[in-house]
Design a protein that fits this description.
762 residues, mainly beta, Immunoglobulin-like, TIM Barrel, 5 domains, 15-stranded mixed β-sheet, eight-stranded antiparallel β-sheet, 5 helices, 6% helix
Length: 762
């Protein structure tokens, strides 16, 4: 099998152990036309021909074509010959076939299944069944391919030749390659914090409409830095055929904020930064430690996954987190070989690990990261593994997992995916140092805040939990993943496994919904306080220091009534707001503009989820009519799925059909408004009618039930130039329990970022 296709021996899937015979030739063979490379989201027609083997196929026997679950090409259908993804089937003998399709009609990871069942006859050796995917003969535009690239998109064929309900895979699996589309958007990427003289790199790529780095872009660009950069050329040639380029070994010798504009003539096609240069202190290293590849529930090979993280999204730190019940021993060994191969101290830190994927009833999803290769994997179950020789090593509950990891050199995240972690049921502060509060599955601040009253002292991480082979740049596409994947910035002066582990154990990191901005949060005390290097609730003998200032993530005892919280945020885009929080209470709301700066721009955003579980997706169908006003301009916010409705209708109306999974989306409109203008908003979750004169900086809120589900309306300046905020906020402290002091930043382009809390107690 090609290196571009996931090796079948590494995939955790299960097939019938009883077969009709020993020789696979008995079951027949399959061909697919056309083969080759096809553009993502293009319309195609494929003809799959199954030739019957020596056994023939009995009456009510069938074949089944299965596909990986993560494809977002939509459902196959047999009812509308003029619609997308219309499928037909015929036999060479004109025997009758019944076609049925289901999105979960087979088993993981091959959930998507089309079954062609024979009725009223049988087939002999050499007879054929022909299936046409995207049959255009009656007006269908064709089969709509998925939005993301995959070098080995498989049409896996199974046969039930004896009509017993056992589907046996054929030896050969035809596949196509799905490749990027034409250039749409240039992206330039820098880190966000380095010391003077410390090397860094500039990454440049061009993405197609759906976020795939494309090989179809080229150009000659001028680079305009805001600071002198040693090693940075004045001009670069971006060659056709490359999906990204990196300029390594760059340095800046003076303090300041670096942004680099990529210029095509007089047009700026991309801007990288901000990168803050400091004489001393920490550096900021960006990572996405949570994603999967085609060996489990995702797509692409694990080797392609690591290559993308390093060379396409320009990460400093990554990891691979396959669902444990799908990780066979062959893949666990191979994955450890890959992490050792790709890991390079000082350049690209890679951790071996896996996702403990127990049901929520027994504790829910956890991410396990080891410092070294060759460690024992403790699975939640062997649900998709036929090798039972190591089943005694399983940890069937999260509590048991923590027991079995006792003494192991590892760290654990709790996260929310298909299953959500129940941190009230199991939590070990010695190992579980962080909560993943954003991923492609949505935004989940509650996973962190649920722990505050329980005395948990966890940091904030964000990752993609991506299944599309794009760690660090995980677009949701057109599937149920409604959010762009997250990133974590690790604040340390040591880009190594040791340095990142120490950073995690001190919670010196912050998370974002996918942007790279600089964030500092420090607490200053009026008198000396006690800083703990480890959580004293878990490590009674933790080392301590006397301090008057601490950074994000620190745990400190202070005999004071209030602290000064110093924060500094420098962003890639204008800052919309910063919430300063003590636990779940917002103690200060900061904006970079004044009430007098507000203009004719109205923002409408919807957010939230149905509930905490797997079916959390909320659909928003609505219309906003701005009576007595005219829309001059409209801009979309977090509208990642280009095929969902979010459009201006006429001169004063916007309509939408969107989804959220805890995250938010929406739009801005710039209005010509009269004195009696009004907003008339109707949606499937309620209605709102408010005079435009009453819409100011304060949110007008329509509560919509569910899990923090609401629509907010507020006013912004016509233009907001502020990409940096430096403030000090005096925060009163509660006398008992922890004071988790943290901030949430929202930028105007729809991204968010959260600091790990500073845990202050008295």
């Amino acid at each position: 099998m090609s290196d571009d296709v996931v090796a079948r021996e590494l995939v955790g899937d299960v097939w019938p152990t009883a077969h009709p015979g020993e020789d696979p030739v008995l079951y027949g063979h399959v061909t697919l036309e056309p083969r080759g490379a096809f553009e993502a989201r293009s319309l195609q027609t494929f003809e799959l021909v199954y030739t019957v083997g020596r056994y023939g196929i009995d009456d009510t026997g069938s074949i089944r074509v299965v596909f990986r679950f993560m494809g977002d090409w939509g459902d196959l259908q047999t009812d509308d010959p003029t619609g997308y993804n219309y499928v037909t089937a015929r036999t060479s003998t004109n025997s009758r076939l019944a076609l049925s399709y289901g999105g979960t009609a087979h088993q993981r990871p091959w959930f998507r299944a089309l079954t062609a069942k024979l009725h009223g006859g049988y087939l002999r050796e050499g007879d054929t069944i022909t299936i046409v995917f995207g049959d255009t003969s009656k007006g269908s535009p064709g089969m709509k391919l998925q939005t993301f690239v995959e070098s080995g998109f498989e049409f896996k064929v199974l046969a039930d030749v004896c009509a017993v309900g056992h589907y046996v895979p054929l030896p050969e699996t035809p596949h196509i390659s799905i490749v990027p589309g034409p250039p749409h958007m240039w992206r330039a990427v820098l880190p966000t914090l380095r010391r003077t003289g410390e090397t860094f790199r500039l990454g440049l790529k061009c993405e197609d409409l759906w976020g795939n780095p494309t090989h179809l872009a080229s150009g000659r660009f001028r680079l305009e830095p805001t600071l002198p950069v040693r090693g940075l050329p004045e001009r670069i040639d971006y060659p056709l055929g490359e999906k990204s380029i990196c300029l390594d070994g760059l340095t800046v010798e003076t303090e300041g904020t670096l942004r680099i504009r990529v210029m095509d003539g007089d047009a700026c096609v991309a801007e990288a930064g901000p990168l803050l240069i400091r004489e001393r202190g920490h550096s900021g290293y960006w990572g996405d430690l949570h994603g999967q590849s085609g060996e489990s529930i995702g797509v692409t090979t694990s080797r392609q996954y690591f290559d993308f993280a390093r060379n396409k999204s320009f990460l400093d730190v990554t990891g691979h987190q396959a669902n444990d019940f799908q990780v066979n021993n062959a893949f666990w060994g191979y994955l450890n070989e890959l992490t050792a191969e790709f890991h390079e101290d000082g350049r690209f830190v890679v951790f071996p690990g896996y996702e403990w994927s127990g049901n929520t009833a027994v504790g829910g999803d956890r991410n396990v990261f080891f410092r070294t290769e060759g460690r024992q994997i403790h699975r939640s179950s062997h649900a998709l593994l036929t090798d039972r020789t190591d089943i005694h090593t399983d940890a069937p509950t999260a509590a048991r997992l923590f027991q079995m990891l006792d003494g192991e050199d590892c760290v654990v995240y709790a996260h929310v995916g298909g299953r959500y972690a129940d941190i009230t049921q199991a939590h070990d502060p010695r190992l579980e140092t962080a909560m993943e509060i954003h991923s492609a599955w949505g935004t989940f601040e509650w996973l962190l805040t649920d722990g505050f009253p329980l005395g948990h002292r966890s940091g904030v991480v964000c990752n993609s939990d991506g299944h599309k082979g794009r760690p660090g740049a995980s677009y949701p596409g057109a599937a149920k993943f409604g959010a762009y994947g997250g990133l974590t910035c690790f604040l340390t002066d040591d880009l190594s496994r040791d340095g990142i582990f120490e950073c995690l154990r001190r919670r010196h990191h912050y998370g974002t919904t996918g942007c790279r901005l600089h964030m500092e949060v420090n607490a200053r005390f009026d008198r000396e306080a006690t800083l703990y290097e480890r959580d004293p609730n878990a490590f009674p003998d933790a080392a301590t220091h006397r301090v008057t200032e601490v950074m994000m993530g620190d745990i400190v005892r202070a005999e004071v009534d209030a602290v000064d919280l110093d924060l500094h945020v420098v962003a890639h885009a204008p800052i919309e707001r910063i919430e300063v929080r003590n636990g779940t209470e917002v103690v200060s709301l900061l904006r970079p503009f004044e009430a007098a700066d507000l203009g004719s721009r109205i923002r409408v955003v919807w957010s939230g989820a149905e509930y905490r579980g797997r079916g959390r997706q909320t659909t928003w169908i609505g219309r906003a009519r701005f009576g007595g006003a005219t829309i001059r301009r409209m801009a979309k916010i977090n509208a990642w799925n280009h095929e969902r409705l979010l459009e201006q209708r006429g001169g004063n109306t916007v309509e939408w059909n969107a989804i959220t999974t805890g995250n938010f989306g929406g739009f801005d409109v710039w209005l010509d408004e009269g004195a009696s203008g009004s907003l008339d908003l109707t949606s499937n979750h309620g209605a709102l009618n408010v005079p435009l004169a009453e819409v100011g900086a304060r949110d007008v809120v329509l509560e919509a039930g569910g899990l923090e589900r609401r629509i907010r309306v507020f006013r912004l300046p016509d233009e907001n130039p502020h990409r940096e905020i430096r403030r000090t906020v005096r925060v009163p402290l509660r006398a008992s329990g922890d004071n988790p002091l943290w901030i949430c930043v929202t930028t105007e382009d729809g991204f968010q970022a959260w600091s790990s809390p500073i845990f202050v107690f008295r």
